[in-house]
Task: structure prediction
Amino acid sequence: MEGLTLLKGKVEGCGSYCDSGSGDRHGKLLHVLKACAKVINVSGAQGSVKLLALDLDGTLLEPGERILPEALEALNRAVEKGTIVGTASGRSFADQLRILSANGLGPAAGYPHFLITDECRVFLLKENCYRGLREHNRRLAELWRSTYERAKGLLASEVSRLVATGTRIVRIIEEEEALERCLFAVIFEDVASAEAEEKVMKQLLAGLPLHCVRNGRVVAVLLEGCDKGSALLKVCEVFNVRPSEAVAVGDSGNDIPMLDGRYGFKPATVQNAEETVKKLVENLGGYVASKPRGAGVAEIVQRLLLT
Result:
């Protein structure tokens, strides 16, 4: 679940990645999209699913950053059937490429067709390259820079308070990495500390153009409206897929924006998900797998995309 405890990658938000290490920088002009929150009926025929978005840590990935063979087999079958498959993670662009490559995925495999990185940046696979949505990622970077100093000061003050109270912090994502990834993050030693800080941070951010999300031991501060759900909505727009034709799968608090119905996606989750996430998905009529992580993903793909 800890998708923000990562290696930082020196990758432009508007740039591209090719197997050859090159590739021209270009992107289709797209605006930053906002959608009204609404709860929808998430039930529907399996054949109506055209796009699948998967969280990584705690969902697709096993401990050790492995993807189970049965999960890969199910995803391969979905891709062969014509399903658009992508990731939706708090992990950085560079870190996702490393993990995907180690599991036999990426440009050489022909999918994932898209990557949502750092909660909200978007990259598409085109001509054996991952290319950022230039205008979308650029606009996010501009908005982040406009609030960066305020967020930086708030975070510095809060980290000082945490240290003074003896709270154990493993790592802080700040400065250059924070600018690049359009987020600040604090990684705590335990989940309980992260849960407590999430409540405090939400109060501190009230009235500011910022919000926070928690993923296991990680609490991240981002732009208001910058989340996996809004990024996935952008992906659907690019691929000309209706939100109701997209399945989103996640397991933790930072996955809620793409699971709670506000954007209209069909939600699904794995058995090891946080209880609040499983209850949310169940209440919306989504699919809760009987198995954890990759085995659960294989179950979801079989039930919602292949049956």
